[in-house]
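Structure tokens please, single chain.
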Amino acid sequence: MSDNKLTSPLLPGAPLSFEEALERSPTEDLRATSPGSNVTFERTVSSLVIIGFLSLATIVGVAELPMVPESIKGNLISLGAPIGMRQGWRVFSPELRSRNWHTLCIIEMQDGTLKAVELPRMQKLSLLERFIHFKKESLLGDHLPNHIYKRFRPVVARYYARANAGINKDRPVRINFVFASVPIPPIGSTHWTYRDQLPEHIFKQVYFSYSVKDEDLKN
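Here you go.
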């Protein structure tokens, strides 16, 4: 029997042995099919892209390690610059690994009185209050002190100016944002600093001061 010759068609319900079924089947159906050239090319390109991405990510990640010399660190990091492949610590918050802090808003009124507003501080809030004020704390406590987001500071300052205008027939003249912080205590097995015993934030720095204008108080 030739390869292209078929035997008698199969009868419905007729039991056949494996050898009989093999003889009655077209041999073309039994031949192993190989992927086309286009499929092979696509798989090769995909594999190369994945390998290239992982290799570049490894190089950029290793460049951040402290043992890498400063003379070549910048060149290694710049390899991932075209696609923005670098860890940005600002997505977490400024000085995340070295300091504890909170932020204050000091409102100076025209008669010389000062009003201090402590922005949301998670350590002093209940679980429900943390859930309610989390976004506010993230904006005012994490993002606003970072110079990356300094363009938003005047907007927030004007908001607090308007919120405190007309109190006791007085008006605010200056809004100050204060960054209060303290270094995180060293970690050691001989002395543990528990969370409820962390040192107070005694270092205070005015990181933004805004002089309130008359037009800022208009609706």
